[in-house]
């Protein structure tokens, strides 16, 4: 009952932002995150219905950052599980050090272990190393978990997680121990859509597609990250950025790789070190520091040079 | 359709629930003891004779009680109720007016209510658990299910739960966002969803005028009629798009698009509005995209391969047994999915009508991650010397070179083409060339299957009939695709490929 009440108090607003330079427990710099109202709604829906929220969207538009922002605002612990192509569903829960146990058993037989260590051998959890999801399940407090880029794993991976996400429990095969989540974690899942996810998995998730921010939002995002930036400079840079993005969209269509919010941020970080007048003057001539924005040889040739030709004419 | 049935199947109710519903419908007039006995035993499909035997009451009397009961129920339910149909009447009522299903505990409360008869309080549990006295948005839900969304009863429950918690109740927009978050899982789904939401929610607005801020329809009265007709016609068009199972392969999507365009031009001048009213679905009906996706998932062959990363507990223990001490653990490679698929697609000529289908097949195979490093190649009529990397036959690859790159024992090959069945006729040459090609690849490819978009009845007497003797050929239906994939995994009985001699 306490749990339910607890959860009812959890409401994400997207308005609480960290102070510039604020660090989290691991010494990572925290950044502001400005979500759209419907994203906020989707997050709250996921929290209340205790379902994972699947987030898709262009690379670099803030899919991964969301979970941390939610954890920050609600003051909850945060666990990240970054999926690799070799990840297995079990890895997120626990790994069992069978070799370590074998070694200790041998040492114990040879009488070379302290009493304290021998006592440990019989403890079922001595050789278990918890994964992110496992830790979240065992935490008394509701935890925010992000399963990042789930589409990188084998196609069977999501299906192997169904039981854990559905019933919030798992079994440690090696000891036969059953673990039930103490508090249902808030789970975010991101996907870059490289592979289709199985229907059975999709059915259990809520889904939100993260749109690319509008101009006004971009300005707000820049202002939140870089306080006291001159307005003219922000406008000029964003205009140039959107122009480039629009060009790319025309050339490559909706699905091609386009410049993203995170690249805009990098670009701005570079540009603001230079005098405002110089930037404003040169920006209309050419794309400054194109290497920050354009990541393929094709793009570099086409967009960085085109403007230069246009400028010289 | 199968999904739909399973949904109905969930409407199984117990006798206590049925009784609760009956009393609810009868404005809480309780059945008397004898009526209840008759009701209960009839529910178990006992005849009046049997009921009489069980209760030791003369059959005539039981019959009277029964007919009186059915009369009463007929008035309450507003339709003819009898011993034969009362179960289905109750179930239908249940489906129409949401009373339970979503809340089992509510029903759990009802028998208790019944036991304490003297307090004639209305069954509040019904009212509390159902947001309104009917299933909210059930129409949208069923429409989406019929459109192929993977939604089940628990997804519907989720909506009720969310509504209950106050989500999506502010206005039409927030309701839209709620349903979208809960039920839509991809961009494609979203288009279908938008379409259905638009129609259904507009409908309810017209009848109930519950949501006042919706558009300015009333102002444009002259346009109003046109919109009406447009909606009506589209409904017809989509009926055909969504419901009709379309047995004939020849009814291609393009036709529907054209029909839609024609209607669009005929009914309305205002493009903005009419555009919204049409949905151009690219689904091909013998096998939908979702079904292809599901079928590809079966094509897998787990193999241990790669770096030694996993502990082989058994081997380690064995080694300790032999050596008497743990020197080093025995490791083994991780189990990975190793299925390589070579997908060959016939293009152009008689295959033009099936281009949409073959593109979808290729796309789902790629996105299902099933190709390994084998890939998709194209040919025309039958592969001779060269295969093409692109559908337009521009980038050629020599078959020999291609085969050299394949890893035998792992690669399976699926051909997609009509093998001459579309035009009919028999060509000795074509059969020979196909046989030659099959012989050529035999050494490198373990399993071969052929998918034919033409129905099996059209193969006989054509080149396809002859080719089907050389290689296992399947129709392009869901079952056919599944069988072909089972064969490619080596699971089918006739999996041993018999090439021509």
What characteristics describe this protein?
heterodimer; A: 313 residues; alpha/beta; Rossmann fold; two-stranded antiparallel sheet; 9 strands; disordered N terminus; disordered C terminus; B: 501 residues; 4 domains; five-stranded parallel sheet; 52% helix
Helix fraction of chain B, binned, reads 40-55%
Regarding CATH, which class of the largest domain in chain A?
Answer: Alpha Beta
Number of strands of chain A: 9
H/E topology pattern of chain A: HHEHEEHHEHEHHEEEHEHHHHHH
CATH class of the largest domain in chain B: Alpha Beta
Oligomer: heterodimer
Largest sheet entry of chain B:
5 strands, parallel
| Record field, number of beta strands of chain B | 9
CATH fold-level label of the largest domain in chain B: Rossmann fold
What is the architecture of the largest domain in chain A at the second tier of CATH?
3-Layer(aba) Sandwich
Q: Helix count of chain A?
A: 15
CATH topology of the largest domain in chain A: Rossmann fold
Largest interface: A-B, 29 and 39 residues
**Which regions of chain A have little confidence, pLDDT < 50, spanning 5+ residues?**
1-5, 307-313
The CATH superfamily of the largest domain in chain A is identified as: P-loop containing nucleotide triphosphate hydrolases
Percentage of residues in DSSP E strands of chain B: 5-15%
Alpha carbon gap, first and last residue of chain B:
45 Å
Indicate the structural class of chain B: alpha/beta
